[in-house]
């Protein structure tokens, strides 16, 4: 008889297991101890996906055996998607093998014989979006006791909710990873500040700016510091303005022109239980990589520009005047102006603002950077 305390421990471990690494390790260990199973496995599958994308979470060395036997016996007819199993109902080894023998059951027979399995239980759970999970227990001795079925029914009910949360969390993680990747390719980062300018939190891009830019850094006390007193004063004044009025407009600050680095300070209207202190402002930092040869080549390819034209176009998009570009590249103003006319014609831009819009909104903005 499985004690109530063990049942509660299993449920708690099941709820917490999605945050473990490897996942559900404690739950598997407790379930093995409670049932005497040699191995426990949780298999999760998204409908319509190939077997290579099945998530297999095993105890011990079971995964390698499962992968090998599945490829040999199940793969031809993909027996893992046997949704004929009643959801939430434990199936014994005899029921899984079945009579008469279907191709799916024959595959089970082959796996059982190959691995010397003499006892098993399997229960299927289906999440609301169609994701299926199979909880499988395997033994090499006597069959499992009858009270195991009652435990598995209880566990399956909890597992359905846990699976739903796990699928939702994985979906959010995937979407966040795509959004984060786009932000990183755009060279954007964020950091949160308190009223005194202490850095409370930041993403990886902002951390890189603090560590490597030479413009912004974090002091030993955690405060945001700048490379010049003038810039630090400007940020302090902007922060004070933003903090004093939650409805104030965002404040934009140019931190560096070469390489380009700017900041947008906004009031912190987002709250999270994961933060140790309430932020007063969010600072979005942005730096481009338009000076890289890779970006110039990409721009030339995209708009069919000559290398020199691409170089001039990038310089103009960074705010330089025709005269400044000419001086920087060792050209005459007249030659540079002629290049700019050719750039406008090839890109279809009606002027400098239009050129900036075309370049900054093109796929180059999220292209891989060499910086």
What is this structure's SSE topology?
Layout (H helix, E strand, L loop, with lengths): L3 H13 L8 H11 L3 E7 L9 E4 L3 H13 L16 E2 H5 L5 H13 L3 E8 L5 E8 L7 H39 L2 E6 L5 E4 L1 H9 L3 E3 L5 E3 L2 H16 L6 E7 L2 E8 L13 E7 L5 H11 L3 H11 L4 H8 L3 H15 L4 H9 L11
Antiparallel strand pairs: 1-2, 1-5, 3-4, 4-5, 6-7, 6-12, 8-9, 10-11, 11-12
Helix pairs in contact: 1-2, 1-6, 3-5, 9-10, 10-12, 10-13, 11-12
Overview of this protein structure:
The chain is α+β, with helices and mostly antiparallel strands. The protein folds into three domains: 4-177, Transcription factor LuxR-like, autoinducer-binding domain (Beta-Lactamase, 2-Layer Sandwich), CATH 3.30.450; 186-287, Beta-Lactamase, CATH 3.30.450; 293-366, Arc Repressor Mutant, subunit A, CATH 1.10.10. It is built from 13 helices and twelve strands. The protein has helices spanning 4-16, 25-35, 62-74, 93-97, 103-115, 147-185, 204-212, 229-244, 293-303, 307-317, 322-329, 333-347, 352-360, and strands spanning 39-45, 55-58, 91-92, 119-126, 132-139, 188-193, 199-202, 216-218, 224-226, 251-257, 260-267, 281-287. Strands 2-1-5-4-3 form a five-stranded antiparallel β-sheet. A five-stranded antiparallel β-sheet has the order 7-6-12-11-10. A two-stranded antiparallel sheet has the order 8-9. The radius of gyration is 30 Å and the shape is elongated. The mean pLDDT is 83.
